[in-house]
Amino acid sequence: MEWENQTILVEFFLKGLSGYPRLELLFFVLIFIMYVVILLGNATLILINILDPHLHTPMYFFLGNLSFLDICYTTTSIPSTLVSFLSERKTISFSGCAVQMFLGLAMGTTECVLLGMMAFDRYVAICNPLRYPIIMSKDAYVSMAAGSWIIGAVNSAVQTVFVVQLPFCRNNIINHFSCEILAVMKLACADISGNEFIMLVATTLFILTPLLLIIVSYTLIIVSIFKISSSEGRSKAFSTCSAHLTVVIIFYGTILFMYMKPKSKETLNSDDLDATDKIISMFYGVMAPMMNPLIYSLRNKDV
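RE: above sequence
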């Protein structure tokens, strides 16, 4: 293979919605409003969890972590995306792109693992209520939350290090709103099969395994709920986990639809994402964090 076109890249060009100025303005307004709602909604939930002693329980501790995580996750990409919508300069430095990759992947991985931990918490609360205070002690749920953050950071650090060591050629156009790790990998002028294998292993461990834990937990929860004789008891048991289940469906449903929906031949043979893909990408990155505090507020009488 000839390496004549290889060069040291100092910046990337984020394509986003370049060429569609009206759409850029529309997306700027929409995303800006959503970002404000994300900050206010999640910050309010965190403040409520801190100030109200009745909410000092494992479930609300996890919820506080989830709210803080959503603020961090959106802040890694939304401000720079908003600036790019209003600016003709749509570039990001190589080091800035690496930081954005690390933070985005770390937050995403942490959220997957944290949702799995929250499902286990709901399983213990409903299926083993008498042992709940023992199993979900303060040491246990703090360790579970800390472990989610550590797993996210380690997974992201490993994958980011392998990506930044790849040789990049003159093509520096990232067809995305931000430095999404897979989009950056595709620009490398080297074999990325090793990176793809690492990503496959990480996806299995940190996305599919928590999803399997969620499915098993809610299967056991549903079986347990149907064993309750009174309709009031069933309703109360289901209400304790309905908010989390709604968040899981939005989060994982968007991921599965985005990566598993059939691709047209034109899409498969080109590097261009169609408008639907970009809207789904925005939904995944903005809508889910915005909906989380609303769901937990409207479907939870304690909050």
